[in-house]
Amino acid sequence: MRVFEDGDVPGLPLDRFRRRLERSAAGAPWPAGAGPLRARVVAGGRSNLTYEVTDGSRSWIVRRPPLGHVLATAHDMSREYRVMTALAGTAVPVPETYALCEDPDVLGAPFYVMEMVEGTPYRSASELVPLGAERVAAIAGRMIDTLVDLHRVDPAEVGLADFGRPAGFLERQVRRWKKQLDASRSRELDGAAELHALLEANIPPESPPAIVHGDYRLDNLLVGADDRIAAVLDWEMATLGDPLTDLALLLVYMRRTTPSSAEADATRAPGFPPPEQVVARYAERSGRDLSAIGFYVGLACFKLAVISEGIHYRYLHGQTVGEGFDAIGAAVEPLLRSGIAALKGA
């Protein structure tokens, strides 16, 4: 988590950032007399860039897209900003949003500013082990319950009725991730064509639509000192659609084993419930039919493989900031194989 001085932050020229915020952040805790700014890149993200900016006494979080190779439908700052703003006041904890700038001339890309929430994005089992199995189980249970809370929010009641097109969501997802793969492919991938064909041939009837996070996992949550979920982060792929895609992606994150030393393994900590219990708790609390979960897991594997291949592409072209990107590419084909197995009932 390298700290940069003013004017030396990759993707975040602090002088231009300050001028824009002082001019446009009405209502934000950003007085004209704020002291000299410093920033650091927050580790952990593999897609959008996240910075902590401070004037020495207060801090803010800034989010912007990667420095290069931005796909047309990815890294939408206004989407993240809108959904978090809409969810304020619901049962889903989100940071307070302060300012959205869609002018790419300021930082070279759109960005937004939000509250810095205190909490821990648990990523590794070694971080959770000191808490003990009982606390780990409680955190995991709240993670599942928060997902159910999200899927219970009525989009129309929070101003998100037009946030997506739920009808035909699964079919479009299969098509979209194939298109994204073609746009980021840097090599031949064994299993990609087979998994895509299986997904096309096995699309089930869709679950009743809801707000979908798109990348729900433990390290995209901030857990407070009281072990409660303090904030849900990283909404760049949020939309309206089939909420079982969120559950399936969470299951894939829990079960995957890859050659990457950068992968999160928090769900292997003692006390964390196995996938079967996660499915049972979600089913009981949501009342949704999970009989086609194999398809959703296959789709989640395909989606995560495509995202990983895109990160691998940017890494090869020197367009990433931070560490841990060198091994991401090795995770792609194992994910494709896991997706094929899920569609075949394994």
Notes on the structure:
This protein has eleven helices and ten strands. The protein has two domains: 3-115, Phosphorylase Kinase, domain 1 (2-Layer Sandwich), CATH 3.30.200; 125-343, Alpha-Beta Complex (Aminoglycoside 3'-phosphotransferase, Chain: A, domain 2), CATH 3.90.1200. The protein has a six-stranded antiparallel beta sheet, sandwiched between helices. Strands 7-10 form a two-stranded antiparallel ribbon. It has a two-stranded antiparallel ribbon with strand order 8-9. The protein has helices spanning 14-24, 77-87, 104-107, 125-128, 133-152, 169-184, 192-201, 244-255, 275-286, 293-316, 332-343, and strands at residues 3-4, 38-41, 49-54, 59-64, 97-101, 111-115, 210-212, 221-223, 229-232, 239-241. The chain is globular and about 60 Å long. It is 39% helix and 12% strand. α6 (169-184) runs parallel beside α10 (293-316), α7 (192-201) packs antiparallel against α10 (293-316) and α8 (244-255) runs antiparallel to α9. It has 346 residues and is of the alpha+beta class. It comes from Actinomadura napierensis. Residues 39-268 form the Aminoglycoside phosphotransferase domain. This is Phosphotransferase family protein.
E-strand count: 10
The helix/strand class is alpha+beta
Distance between the termini: 40 Å
CATH class category name of the largest domain: Alpha Beta
Strand content: 5-15%
Helix and strand run: EHEEEHEHEHHHHEEEEHHHH
The proportion of residues forming helix, as a percent range, comes to 25-40%
Low-confidence stretches: 258-262
- The CATH architecture of the largest domain comes to Alpha-Beta Complex
Strand order of the largest sheet: 1-2-3-4-6-5
CATH topology type of the largest domain: Aminoglycoside 3'-phosphotransferase, Chain: A, domain 2
Count of separate structural domains: 2
The main sheet comes to: 6 strands, antiparallel
**Count of DSSP helices?**
11
CATH homology superfamily name of the largest domain: Aminoglycoside phosphotransferase (APH), C-terminal lobe
Coarse shape: globular
**Average residue pLDDT:** 87
Rg (C-alpha, Å): 20 Å
Organism: Actinomadura napierensis
Protein name: Phosphotransferase family protein
Domain Aminoglycoside phosphotransferase: 39-268
